Amino acid sequence: MRTRRTAPPAGRAAAHATAMSVRLWVRDSTRSMGISPRTLTLGAGAALLAATAGSVAIATALPRLGPESVPSPVLAQLRHTMAGLVWAVAGAATVLFQLVTPRRSHLADLLQLLPVPRVVTAVTGAVPPLVLALVLTATVTGPAVVLLADASGSPVVFVVLAALLLVTGLLPLLALVFAVVVLALQGMRVPQHHALTGAAVTGLAVALSPSLLELSRLDAGWLPHRALAGAAAGSVLGWVLLVVWCVGALAVFLAGAARLPEEPAARPSRFLTGFGVPGGQSAARAWFELVVLVRAPQYAAAVLFTSVAVVAFLGLWWVTRYEYLSLLVSVVFVPYFLACVQSYGHTRPTHWITTHLLARPLAWVVPKAAVTLALATLLTLPGVAAAAGTGLLPWEGAPAVVAQALPAWAAAMVAGVVVPYNAEQPLSVGLSIATASALYAATVWLGRQADVGGALTALAGGALLFGCYVAVARAVRTAPQHV
């Protein structure tokens, strides 16, 4: 008697599909870098331990707070502020990884042909960026959680548990909001990169809403960050609200993900269509690098979102004239340079062609570096000119803003080769950005330890990382199997 095969439970199918996604990324990365899976695992673990150690070191160096040293009203406001900071960082991290993660993959298309529920496909695509957002949130907000525990007079373990409840429930909910906005905009025939930018702006507004509520002095204890502050202070009602928020948000995510339609495939970009290809070999390679990069939806979305952030930053300066904004002017333009991390991954499948036709396996190294640096600089110049024109920075300081962003560009080039972007592997995008950010942060920290001018230190750091980029480019493998 023949038995009828039934579909596996949704939870087991989602776990298997997620494990398959991780396994495919590991194989692709190890094949590209020529290392073993164990080496890759050890490297990722070492990076995670280093980030955790840095967060713990900062947390232990913070001054201890308590009712005997700080008035109770100030402690209450500090609890609300730190809880809102946890929310804001978690939301911003989710928006970042949702923005740069490919919206479709061959694995998701394959799952649609199998007898698995729609929610399995949605969860499989959502888990990698959400895990990366959770790790980034835990690393960045460690000191804030310690301050929240001190201001509440509660053990750090309980406050960490409360923060995990908040983040675990609300990260998927924010990812669902992002997907709904993207689908709504694409339903109005908006190009994908504009839809991604609109969803990112919406998600960032949700992430920053607690801070705005704190500034308006609105007393709403049912809000998630207020529930976190109450739970940290030992309030039973705060714990109940936190659990309700976590369970309710996860339920809404699963229900919504199961009913959302599949996102339509992005229409091919026609940007720079109609321009002739330059005749020389070097110019033609540079043109190829430029066209491939600017037509990538994730790169275009990152550039548009950064441009919106720059305009908002300059508008804030124009209205408020806060002097502390001048300290952040260099940081605002860094995403233009970090976005170049995608460049290598987009053209990697074609590198074997120059190897076999021209016998020059590194023919792409210099054109890619020149195009990405020139493009990031051109995108930065209008904002820098506007900042100088409005008095945010002196005109003679404008070149230093670009110079201080050079380590970010060089770090992006190194990370793009070490952890290449792959449209089929959601993990690759987040890890490449995390690697580039870590390299950039390390370069900035080392530069500040040296008693040298900022621009000169940035140039030295950029040159050092560019040398690493060339060295890593020589070590990677480019073979026809990447096609």
Keywords:
0% strand; 2 domains; transmembrane; ABC-2 type transport system permease protein; membrane; mainly alpha; 74% helix; 483 residues
Brief synopsis:
With 483 residues, the protein is an all-alpha fold. It has two domains: 62-259, no CATH class; 281-482, no CATH class. The protein is 74% helix and 0% strand.
Largest sheet: none
Q: What's the count of strands?
A: 0
Number of helices: 21
Rg result: 24 Å
Rounded mean pLDDT score: 76
| Low-confidence segments | 1-5
**SS-based structural class?**
mainly alpha
- As a percent range, the share of strand residues is under 5%
The first-to-last residue Cα distance is 46 Å
- The count of domains is 2
Shape descriptor reads globular
Secondary-structure element pattern, one letter each: HHHHHHHHHHHHHHHHHHHHH
Helix content: over 70%
Keywords: Membrane, Transmembrane, Transmembrane helix
Protein name: ABC-2 type transport system permease protein
Transmembrane segments: 40-62, 82-101, 113-136, 156-183, 236-260, 299-318, 324-341, 401-420, 427-446, 452-472
What does this structure look like?
With 483 residues, the chain is mostly helical. The protein folds into two domains: 62-259, no CATH class; 281-482, no CATH class. Helices cover 74% and strands 0% of the residues. The chain has 21 helices and no strands. The protein has helices spanning 10-33, 37-61, 72-100, 106-112, 118-140, 142-152, 156-187, 192-215, 224-232, 236-259, 281-294, 297-320, 329-332, 334-338, 343-347, 351-358, 365-389, 398-404, 406-418, 426-449, 454-475.
